[in-house]
What does this fold into?
Amino acid sequence: MPEYAVLDKDTIKIWIMPYLSVAKRGFTSKFDLLEIVNAILYKLKSGCQWRFLPLGHLFSGEAPSWNTVFQHYRKWCKKDEWRKAYANVLISLL
It folds into this structure.
């Protein structure tokens, strides 16, 4: 598990990933989407700027650029998927 994990991978996989879209037409990301979600959660929790994400600590292998993480977040927000995933996590905590 990465050094700066906000949630464990199982929690992200069960409660968040079903609400987020993945690429179509066979494109596969070089980076683990679970770790990208964890990086987004870290940013939202800490309030740091996107450019200052500690990507070396958030990813177990090669780290993407901050812009890659931001673009995933932006895509999910535009489709209103991030809000739905967040609402699901809040409901699960009740």
Q: What stands out?
A: The CA atoms of residues 32 and 74 lie 17 Å apart. The chain is about 55% helix and 0% strand.
